[in-house]
Every structure is written in structure tokens, then in C-alpha cells.
């Protein structure tokens, strides 16, 4: 506790010196969410990065999120506490594969989940996050959509649009691990609880949800629901905000495996250190960034 207090004081000082803001995804460790200027889902954090006046953005999340911030705010310094915080799903699609698919479907538009590399975004018509995927797809002027990289979110979106999705086979290791059996067992132990689930989970698990939505949508739903007990089908870090919003409610994570190890690579100590050394910085080659920016900016403009 004493060490954390010292670290926090140092952080406060450094933040002023560097004119920095700290953005933290809801899947980050509690000790990081506690000191963040903004906590949010992928969408809110991208918006914040695009609109901030600060000179330095510390992105506490995974690498693709830092890249998106750098693409949207190319003149700012974007730091990440540990650059090894990657996203295996983002790495499941490569440029060659996507180009081949585009050649096979020349009339299709490419809609890319923000969980992807800058190079993939540079090959994309428009990006989306889990909170606006259906709205983005329906805004696109094409009947056929190439969808990368999350097959589970793709399947969910397909049920909510008339457009035809050509779905890439990627997935999130963490959310995809949750099974129907896990949820059945949890429901049996907590019969009064509502099951809330992220669309990165498998279709058959998503189908069991009393509520399906992005991280922010789940948080909003639990805050406003009259239920007192919830089974949560998304990453464990959301417990920080869920409990803060509703101290009188009970949250059971659907399994103890709903932990994204990549998100947890960042910690408070590394956060302070990155502001001290101004390293590691996110770098995106300008030619790639310029092409990727259009797809992110289009997303931010969808009403
Ligand atoms: P959201 O923040 O859009 O809910 O995305 C979840 C996720 O897996 C981020 O890596
Ligand atoms: Fe990637 Fe899943 Fe971790 Fe999000 S939770 S960063 S999608 S592995």
C-alpha cells in the first residue's frame, strides 16, 4: 500500500510535467483503472484519443488500441506501459489473406473490428467496435460485407442485419473459452441471477444471454437493471466498474478463466515508468497510418 501511494504521487507529478492523460480499458488491472483519467471500452477510448488536448497519451490497454490512438492523433506521443500487451485475435488476420478475399469479392466493402493491426485497418473501408458494429454495417453502401477478424462477433452481427457477411475465422481466446456447460452450471448455482454476455463469446453462449452487449453496454445494463445478482460473461477487469457502479449488487464471473493475460501485462509500476522514460512509444509508419485513419474516422462519424 505504501509503495502504491508513492507510485501514485510520482504518477501525478509526471502527468503534469508531461501534459499527459491516462486512458484505461475496462479490462485493465484495478490499480490502473483507479488512476486513469478515463476508463472506457474500445470506442470511448478511441474517441478520447481523437479529441484530447494533452500532448501525451498513455494508453493502458493492448497494442492495437495504442495504434488506433496514434493513428487518430499522429502528432501526439502515445505510450503503452508494456508493448508486449498484444491481442491474439488482432494477429489472426494478415494483409495477404484479406487482399485475397477482397479480390474474390470485388463488390464487397471491408468492415474491420477495431481489434486489428494498423496494416489491416489500412486495407479497410470502415472500422467498428463491439458497441457500434450493427450500426456501422448498416451504414455501409454495399450488400456484401467482408468482416474481419472476429467470427463470434460476426455471427452476432449477421443476426441483426440484412447484409451478407463474409466472416473471417478469428476469435478472442479469452471470451471464446466460455462454454454452454459453464453457463448452465453457474445458472444452477445462482438461479436468480441474470446472465450478461459479450458478443465475442461463442454464438451458443451468446444465445443464453439475458443481455448481450459490448463492455460499456453490459456496465450500463447492470447499473440500470432491477436484478440484484449477475453472471458476467466478459473479462474479469469489468468487475472494477461493475462494483463501483452498484455496490449493493453481486457479480459472479462465469468462469475464473475470463481473464485476458495480455491486458494484465500492464501494471501501475510500468505505467509510472513509461511516463518517466517516455518509452515504449507506439509507432505507426505514416504511410500506413494515413490509409488507416480514414477507416477510423469514418467510424467516429457514424451516427
Ligand atoms: P469492447 O471494449 O468494445 O467491449 O471490446 C472488448 C475487447 O475485447 C477489447 O479487447
Ligand atoms: Fe484481445 Fe480478447 Fe484480450 Fe480483448 S480480451 S485484448 S479481444 S484477447
Automatic annotation (TrEMBL):
Binding positions ([4Fe-4S] cluster): 87, 172, 260
GO-annotated molecular function: 4 iron, 4 sulfur cluster binding; metal ion binding; quinolinate synthetase A activity
Domain of life: Bacteria
Entry keyword annotation includes Ubl conjugation: no
Residue numbers binding iminosuccinate: 25, 42, 113-115, 130, 198-200, 215
Example of a GO cellular component annotation carried by this entry: cytoplasm
EC number: 2.5.1.72
Pathway linked to the protein: Cofactor biosynthesis; NAD(+) biosynthesis; quinolinate from iminoaspartate: step 1/1
One GO BP: 'de novo' NAD+ biosynthetic process from L-aspartate
Note on how the cofactor is bound: Binds 1 [4Fe-4S] cluster per subunit.
Catalytic activity: iminosuccinate + dihydroxyacetone phosphate = quinolinate + phosphate + 2 H2O + H(+)
Subcellular location: Cytoplasm
Annotated function: Catalyzes the condensation of iminoaspartate with dihydroxyacetone phosphate to form quinolinate.
UniProt similarity note: Belongs to the quinolinate synthase family. Type 2 subfamily.
Protein name per Swiss-Prot or TrEMBL: Quinolinate synthase
Annotated source species: Fontibacillus solani
Taxonomic lineage from the root: Bacteria, Bacillati, Bacillota, Bacilli, Bacillales
Gene transcribed to yield this protein: nadA
